[in-house]
Design goal:
It is a single chain. This protein is α+β, with helices and mostly antiparallel strands. About 65% of the residues lie in helices and about 10% in strands. It folds into 2 domains: about 170 residues, no CATH class; about 140 residues, 2-Layer Sandwich (Heat Shock Protein 90), CATH 3.30.565. It has 12 helices and 5 strands. A hairpin with a 3-residue loop joins β2 and β3. The radius of gyration is 42 Å and the shape is rod-shaped.
Length: about 400
């Protein structure tokens, strides 16, 4: 159907229905006239035309009452055959239209039962056709075949429509699942950022406050110096929180004043902040350092930050070692501590807590690997590999 015809159908359905019924009656009447001219001993014409008109007049209700309309059109065409007319596809046009509607709108088994009943009625009517009694292909096979063809066409169209509807529903469900998955991934990403920012800075601030309290009497000047670093730590925490929460408002607010995402270039600041909390961090770089994509740079920084935070919170040792090994296609990160007197049973194992889980998620999101656990000689080790050719920056962050 062309676009103009679709618009005409949408704007003027009564006119379209009337034109359709008029064409069907013209085809059926033409079939009766043809039969009148070629059949020996011409059959009655006007009663056949009235029966065709009755069949076409019932078709407007074929959508709301398909089975009664099919029964009425079948009786009308059987009457045409009983009058002695040759029943071909032309006078059967109203019956075929009714059967097509039944196949579209009625249960499949009921539709085929109606089609077989209409076929049987047409075959029985053909048995008593005196003019073509010996032409069984014309009088018997031809009418039944047209009814079954209409039923098959309607069933095919119905299956195609059901398939298209199911496909559209499946596509809509897939879109909803994809949207829900993206929302979950975004929430997890923001949760990781908030956890890393809050956990690191609060742990650092707690360690700095404890160290300042310990030195308050023995070395007041050193205690005041650490308290000054404590204010810097809390200010940095507020800046990063503002930057992280600001990601949620990028559609409405600008990101002016938000701190840029941290990377390995801020590793010296991280080491200095850990030093104020009493943690001595040594950084070793192997290979030729390479510029990292923003997402990968943030991932590497957050993993080191969280690993040092765990050392600050859980390790008895006050020393840690960070190793960055650059290969042509990989960046290997290792953070270790000496362990000390803290019992191994009290140390966090792999997979416990949100810190290790967040580090694992960050590494896997870039296509890398992650491992964390006790070292054979004592202490704890966090190791991961990050592919330098990864382009999945959005998930990495």
């Amino acid at each position: 159907m062309s676009t103009s015809r679709q618009r005409l159908t949408a704007r003027r359905p009564p006119v379209t229905e009337g034109v359709t019924l008029g064409l069907l009656f013209a085809v059926a009447a033409g079939g009766c006239l043809l039969s009148y001219w070629v059949t020996p001993g011409p059959p009655l014409l006007w009663p056949a035309l009235l029966l065709c008109a009755l069949a076409c007049a019932a078709l407007p209700w074929r959508r709301s009452h398909p089975l009664p309309v099919l029964a009425l059109t079948t009786l009308s065409i059987v009457g045409v055959s009983a009058l002695g007319h040759l029943v071909t596809a032309l006078p059967m046009a109203p019956l075929m239209a009714a059967q097509y509607s039944v196949s579209l709108r009625v249960h499949r088994r009921t539709a085929w039962t109606g089609a077989l009943a209409a076929t049987a009625a047409m075959v029985v009517a053909g048995l008593f056709h005196s003019g073509f009694r010996h032409e069984w292909v014309i009088s018997l096979v031809n009418p039944g075949a047209w009814v079954l063809l209409s039923a098959a066409l309607g069933s095919y169209v119905r299956v195609r429509r059901d398939y298209a509807a199911a496909r559209a529903e499946h596509t809509a469900r897939e879109r909803e699942e994809e949207a829900r998955h993206r929302v979950v991934q975004e929430r997890m990403r923001i949760a990781r950022e908030l956890h890393d920012v809050v956990a690191h800075h609060l742990a650092l601030a707690n360690a700095q406050a404890g160290t300042a309290a310990h030195l308050a009497r023995a070395d007041p000047e050193k205690a005041y110096e650490i308290l000054g670093k404590l204010s810097e730590t809390t200010a940095a925490a507020l800046r990063e929180l503002k930057s992280t929460v600001g990601l949620l408002r990028q559609d409405t607010d600008t990101d002016d004043g938000l701190a840029p995402a941290p990377g390995l270039d801020r590793l010296p600041d991280l080491v200095a902040a850990c030093a104020t909390a009493g943690l001595d961090v040594t950084v070793a770089v192997e290979g030729q350092p390479q510029p990292l994509p923003p997402g990968l740079d943030l991932t590497a920084y957050r993993i080191i930050q969280e690993a040092l935070t765990n050392v600050t919170k859980h390790a008895a040792s006050r020393t840690a070692r960070v190793r960055l090994a650059y290969d042509p296609h990989l960046l290997r990160l290792t953070v270790t501590d000496a362990g000390g007197a803290l019992p191994q049973a009290d140390r966090p194992g792999p997979g416990h807590g949100f810190g290790l889980l967040g580090m694992r998620e960050r590494a896997v999101a870039t296509g890398g690997t992650f491992r964390a656990g006790p070292r054979p000689g004592g202490g704890f080790e966090v190791a991961c590999t990050l592919p330098l050719d990864s382009h999945d920056e959005s998930t990495a962050s």
